[in-house]
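quick one before i forget lol
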Amino acid sequence: MAGIIFSLVVYQRMISIEKAALYIVAQVIGAICGACYARLVSNWDLYDAGGKGVNHVLDGHALWQALLAEILATAFLVTVVLNTSYAATKLYGHAPIAIGGAVLVCHLALLPLDGCSINVARSLGTAVASGSNDRKQWTHIWVFIVGPLLGGVLAGLNPLWVDRTLEPTTHVPAPAPALTA
């Protein structure tokens, strides 16, 4: 996700700009290949009836509504990812549940509005694989690029997520022991 990569480069300097660029290029290429493969192996009628997986602002909603929703949903998701990825929470292993729950909430909120992007590469991949502009996916693509990027920046500006790497003197309670039968 570009938002997380941006936050790691700019705010924490945890990865280099070159490495971040490679991550983004790899994610976009992977998304395009994955969407093209899904189109290739799918029943064409079923694939087309499902909207080809493209993101577009649905009728009855304004572009600004979709943009604001994408910004807020991406900021929420990136905040959850950043807050569950520091050393103290890694000990407990709850990150997958929290991140999966955040993705679920974002999808439940945004699917009826714009198909829920929250990921620039996913939107670009399906738009390329669709091969057309039937659903205005290329007309609306800026919403699905700008929204997640601004959401990632917004999440990165939140001072609460700053990596709290544990010092040797920091006490972290041990995880509860596993139940045995």
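fyi Residues 17-41 form the longest helix (25 residues).
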